[in-house]
Amino acid sequence: MTCDATFTAQDFKTDLKPVWCPGCGDFAVLNSVYRALAELGCKPHETVIVSGIGCSSRLPGNVETYGFNSLHGRALPIATGAKLASPELNVIAVGGDGDGLAIGGNHFMHTARRNVDIAYIMMDNEIYGLTKGQAGPTTPSGDKTKSTLYGNPDPVVDPCALALSFGASWVGRAFSGDVKGSTELMKKAISHHGFAFLNILSPCVTWRGEDQHKELRAKMRPVPAGHDLTNREAALRFTDEADDALTVGVLYDVDRPTLVDQMAAISQRALGPKGQPPLSQFLNAFAPQHIQ
Amino acid sequence: MTCDATFTAQDFKTDLKPVWCPGCGDFAVLNSVYRALAELGCKPHETVIVSGIGCSSRLPGNVETYGFNSLHGRALPIATGAKLASPELNVIAVGGDGDGLAIGGNHFMHTARRNVDIAYIMMDNEIYGLTKGQAGPTTPSGDKTKSTLYGNPDPVVDPCALALSFGASWVGRAFSGDVKGSTELMKKAISHHGFAFLNILSPCVTWRGEDQHKELRAKMRPVPAGHDLTNREAALRFTDEADDALTVGVLYDVDRPTLVDQMAAISQRALGPKGQPPLSQFLNAFAPQHIQ
Amino acid sequence: MSQEVSLSIVGSGGDGAVAAGDIVAMACAGEGLHVIKTEAYGPQIRGGESSCTVRISAEPIFAQAGAIDALVVFTWSDYARFADELALAENVVIFYEEADAPPPDMRGILVPVPFKKIAPHAKNILALGVLAPLLHLPLEGMRSAVKQRFAKKTATVMAGTLAAFDRGIGIAEQLQCVAQTLAYARGTPRLLMSGNEAAAFGALHAGCTFFAGYPITPSSEILHLLSEWLPKMGGTSLQTEDELAALGAVIGASFTGAKAMTATSGPGLSLMAEMLGLSSTAEIPAVIFNVQRGGPSTGIPTKSEQSDLMHALYASHGDTPRVVLAPCDVEDAFHITVDAFNIAEEYQIPVIVLSDQLIAQRRETIEAGALVHDVKRRRLATSIPDYKRYADTPDGVSPMSIPGTADAMYQTNGLEHDESGRPSAMFSVHERMNAKRHRKMEAIGGKYRLFRRFGPERPDVGIICWGSSSGAVREALDILNQGDLRIAAFVPRILAPLPAADLQAFVDSCSEVLVIELSYSRQFHRYLRSQIDLPRAKTDVMARSGGKSLSVTEIACAVRKMLGVEALEEVMA
Amino acid sequence: MSQEVSLSIVGSGGDGAVAAGDIVAMACAGEGLHVIKTEAYGPQIRGGESSCTVRISAEPIFAQAGAIDALVVFTWSDYARFADELALAENVVIFYEEADAPPPDMRGILVPVPFKKIAPHAKNILALGVLAPLLHLPLEGMRSAVKQRFAKKTATVMAGTLAAFDRGIGIAEQLQCVAQTLAYARGTPRLLMSGNEAAAFGALHAGCTFFAGYPITPSSEILHLLSEWLPKMGGTSLQTEDELAALGAVIGASFTGAKAMTATSGPGLSLMAEMLGLSSTAEIPAVIFNVQRGGPSTGIPTKSEQSDLMHALYASHGDTPRVVLAPCDVEDAFHITVDAFNIAEEYQIPVIVLSDQLIAQRRETIEAGALVHDVKRRRLATSIPDYKRYADTPDGVSPMSIPGTADAMYQTNGLEHDESGRPSAMFSVHERMNAKRHRKMEAIGGKYRLFRRFGPERPDVGIICWGSSSGAVREALDILNQGDLRIAAFVPRILAPLPAADLQAFVDSCSEVLVIELSYSRQFHRYLRSQIDLPRAKTDVMARSGGKSLSVTEIACAVRKMLGVEALEEVMA
Ligand SMILES: Cc1ncc(C[n+]2csc(CCOP(=O)(O)OP(=O)(O)O)c2C)c(N)n1
Ligand SMILES: Cc1ncc(C[n+]2csc(CCOP(=O)(O)OP(=O)(O)O)c2C)c(N)n1
Ligand code: SF4
Ligand code: SF4
Ligand SMILES: [Mg+2]
Ligand SMILES: [Mg+2]
Q1: Which atom of ligand 1 lies closest to the CA of C268?
Q2: Which chains are within 8 Å of C by 3+ CB pairs?
Q3: Do C214 and A103 touch (CB under 8 A)?
Q4: What span, in angstroms and rounded, lies between the C-alpha atoms of B20 and B56?
Q5: CA distance, residue B209 to nearest chain C CA (Å)
Q6: Which of A109, A120, D282, D342 could pair with A93 in a Cys bridge, judged by C-beta atoms 3.0 to 4.6 Å apart?
Q7: Model-level pTM greater than 0.95?
Q8: Residue B134 and residue D44: Cβ atoms within 8 Å?
Q9: Separation in Å, CA A100 to CA A24, C190, D365
Q10: In this structure, are residues D449 and D497 in contact, taking their beta carbons and an 8 Å threshold?
Q11: CA–CA distance from B233 to each of A234, A236, B291, C254, D201 (Å)?
């Protein structure tokens, strides 16, 4: 990631109008993205934002970097390919809770486990927004939605808890209404060496009601002083909070080799002391050798 | 699950010869399955065993119950459909580590979360056996395999740790070489009300070498007395053990509503006090009503 | 006076354009009129522009509105978005928000109405009040429909809404303009349903007890309705983590004997390719209801197209028999769904239904009495000595036992297997089992010759089309055949196995053939060529992308052009 | 004396049948002979029965062995498993383990050898020693090949192994039997490679720097080789969690400018259907190397078939252009792979290569000098003012910028989009973009007319086939054309876009046409019908399941039957 040029938040805006409903929490997330990229001094053309499909996944279209609004649930493999093939790029993945936890859950697990050096920002509205309000993995159990008329039968998951179990090396939680806090967390996530997972609670006014904003804001509280960022058990406790609490901030932060590091090490081992062989050497194994 | 008839272990054998390599750990797993089913008094024709694809997933073909060797990674959705549609059946899912953790990881997560009332037995040989020895999620980091000639770049995962994070209500670990222990654990898993996950370490002599048996046996130790089976944090500690330890036994066991329970409750709520409506009532919403 | 009128209401989110359309449609359904109602939206998730078009007729109709007789515009900038898609009649009457001046080049009879000023919260109902007397829409029926629609509102809101309606009537009475008016005799009330609603009802009627699905536009209504109804009817509906799991759960449920279905749209159908092969090879019945939208890839989720055909016919590696059905209209979505279950169950095979967004989401009147259809059952095995799950039989169908049945246990798989279900890599077994599985297709083809044929014998032009295109084609025939032209149409409702003999006879009986489809790459035409003889010299193809529905005029023009009678005057109603 | 011999070794795991075959093949390659080596296995994962067959010829050969001249059997029960698949020559010499009596009805020259007694740990090498002098195989070359094969063993083991070989020679010298012997002149050594190996080399040659894949039989060797070689060549190889992620990673890597590929087999290709559509719609180059095996579903993973054709051509919902290539043999797997990259990169389109198990896993001699092929590059955009990613161009290819390029940023997606990449639901944009994307197919078709044509002009019978079937067809032509018959063959190496004009000209030039394929449901034939005019009256189809490879005799018989010359004597070499 090259972060030396100066671009303002404004420079990161495309002239595409966001498609979100008036009042959608995703507007604030977008603002935080603009600010974080500008404040970090990221170069737009060296930044790639990959998303899946959903209201939230429309975000890359509104950011003047390289952008890729891909398939439902598949942002992370695409981001992984981009980062591995071009480690010099600043690769960010974004998407919704349904995108990342339902259809895309397996990629979340493996991308975190491999510690792929990207920031993954989940815009979590606790619902399937784009398809008009069905329950997703973060929809509270018992809630009535379009697809759960008699109450959601499934237990709710905490995305940060999953990220921690999957082996993410940085985990944070934010509330989109808190643009300043979100921006700071995004900056940390993007700067992190390794897989950084940021869960941003981002209200869906259309399918979760107008009160979600207020409720989330009321529950929000900072990570208590003295929390040990390298203690996974401690971090997990913030993912099993009382109903009236939502701890925002960095929950976990450790440094371990990323997949890019591992691949570099593999290359070193493969090359050995002799360096890059001519490709023709490939054929040796298939050529008859005259052995005395 | 109906468990009153008497069938012997022998009765559960089909006359299909297992395809496994001589010395494969899966033979012992199969033996434990025969014994567990017999000792529990399960009726063969009310038992369904679903698997994915892999050496291990060939198991259902050798068990005289209803069996379904399905697709790579997809045993759990199929088992879920079977159990939900026919809750009276005893549904068991089996498969390999690659099957359940790589391609099938997402189904593992969601089936555990929903607490689908099945036993899921993972035959974990720390390798892709059937495809001839590539690294999988349980292959130790750094190991050289067919696909990781310079060492496996990925961190290893503990299937029990994942099961616990996903919300499995019963989690156990066994070693296939310990047929008695495995049988007892299988019996508990099958009898558990809810999603029971049993990880059976089952050596692959062909791709992990002849020593895997001995090494695993040497590491094996029982769950210490006094372990609180309802304490998830405590259970998790057994999934992050020293390299020379392998705790076998029940790690976690709680009771919470299963998906079958939830669906029954939903049916109750849907029916209301009036009971089942005539289907024609469906059309009311689409018929013009004369309203004064 | 006319036997039909079409009206359109255009506004932004909150303007209630679509609600207004629903009310008109329901009111007319109550009068026994024939109605087809369509909607369109801009890219905005909510609060963006929307339009709602209702075509009302005293006689049966089969296509969405052609030319619009009356238009309500709340904002001209919203109208601009849809201008391309809305054909206005010569003498269209346009009621527009007084506060927003029309573009200078706007043609039609332009009538400003102060909607916002008079009824800021019920502009749409006010508009209905204006339209109703002018077009001779049923006033009482509309009041009822307003009440039905807002049944859950407070009495005050309801009163305000009804008052707005009456204000509209008042305004209309003072207007001098003359609009196309509807002449009709009142009949038995009809149901007003969409294709997705009819399909959900079809599934329940067929005895479906298990549904698993993952939300996707434009099929989600089926998930919603079955989540509501299956629990009432002793069944189960499950929202899975993805489409692979959805079809997996369906197969698992069906394995244990349940009649089971999933519903999806293109991207989901693509994800089901591997599972489809399992259902076919393990011979486990499954119904896959796919509502086509604009493709490729995420494409245009809210618009109709007929481009999932090849995927439905051929997806999944290997030689994988499957049945593909396609409904022609809303009522047919019911029948085809029941047929899908019947075939899946009787022949132990996956059946894909290819509906499309136009059928799925438009609302259409249908006769309640028409929603009946025979229901078939699986050929079950019960305690057969030396039971062989895949015993070879003349029609390829082997009795299937279900778990719980003693003495008929079997272990199945997606590997090639012999009669007992044992995995086998032997060529002779493979060939025999391929033959057995494909023989079922012949049996189905013999029994299910599902197609519609319209128009005279020995036609000058024989149109071949499928799915929602057939509605516009049918109406085009009526128009074209008013002169001396002899135009006919053949519409297969089963695409695999195709009723090839019937279709070949049709082709042979035509002087010329015109294949019509909404697929840029001419999927239907290519498929037809592969199945029947379609001589190049006498065949034309009218294929284009979806995203805009096929119009009657478009078809009529294509036929005339083909016959070199372009010069002929238009005979449009 | 003969210009060719075929030998087969059958045993259980541990007998080393396959290793023995490798050694013979490598030794003969070293002599400049032409070799084709195939293997077959029973269902057992390891330790089960296996057979290895080597065909050796002084002249170029194109098909695996027909009739076996010399056979080694370590256990008759293992032989029984393969009896169906092994055609024995009239005068076959069979060396069998003395301790295991042959079945009474076994025909051929039966020679017992005490393999187990003499060399319990090197039975296979002992057998080679017996075979070598009898068949006139190169003794020194075989010793070299043994050393090459066991290079990593200790000196003692090596010495023991070589001693076993010499013991074998000794035994042979005492035998009285006469076998088919090989006559040849020594030539330049050849490479001995499999199709998967050639494809991996092709990828590296083409400049592939990124590979992502998930293991699956029979394609895993490509994953293994590229995992070994890419890290040496500055590239990256990733084993993903599944096939969806594999193609996803390929698309992500390619988006940033890397030449990228995945490799898989049927079930994996089925899972890639949705991603394929994304590559096509977002116009991101991707090479998908698919090795066909027996289908449907899990099918027969270890055997060959040609039944992924329709899926490759049509999978993914919507109108999704993609290119499909198919190599004819091992060497061609190299060329086709380079072409796949060239087309993918030049035209920004997904390219599927359909290899099959027979090409992929048989080992074949090729000339080292033949492995050269032009390499093409992507049309890159660099800082274009007012850059439009999807600018419409005559050939449909728009300059592509890659991240890192300033002033040419864009945001893409799989939604329908306009020239800038902005999502659009408008029909006019949709039609324009569909046209642009499909225009690339025309351009490719014009430039890549990849096919092979064998045999005389104006043939009595023109065979159309593809992929590995072409080898046997080519040899059948040689036999058939020895009399007065005029048989020719047309083998497209690009299946989409099909070189339809060339193929039509071929069809028109033939008195009769025979389509040959290993697909029960006649996928190739159906596809040909959809693309060209293939008059029913003059067309025959020889289609069957895979699981057993196509033999030269089978083809020759089919042609003769078609021409009514069945009675003709066999003219087999
Ligand atoms: C394969 C596939 N399945 C389903 C869909 C339909 N779909 C689009 S967005 C979405 C879920 C959106 O929820 P989420 O990811 O939480 O994003 P949000 O809209 O809430 O921001 C679904 C199911 C699709 N596009 N592709
Ligand atoms: C979709 C798909 N991808 C890949 C494969 C190939 N495949 C078969 S088994 C297997 C992995 C086996 O590993 P595991 O699940 O651990 O089972 P084991 O053989 O070790 O018991 C793979 C990758 C397949 N059959 N289907
Ligand atoms: S539906 Fe919800 S998430 Fe989507 S744009 Fe509207 S408010 Fe935002
Ligand atoms: S390869 Fe390994 S897991 Fe498979 S059967 Fe052999 S020993 Fe068992
Ligand atoms: Mg969401
Ligand atoms: Mg394994």
Answers
A1: 1
A2: A, B, D
A3: yes
A4: 8
A5: 28
A6: A120
A7: yes
A8: no
A9: 19, 44, 49
A10: no
A11: 11, 10, 60, 39, 50
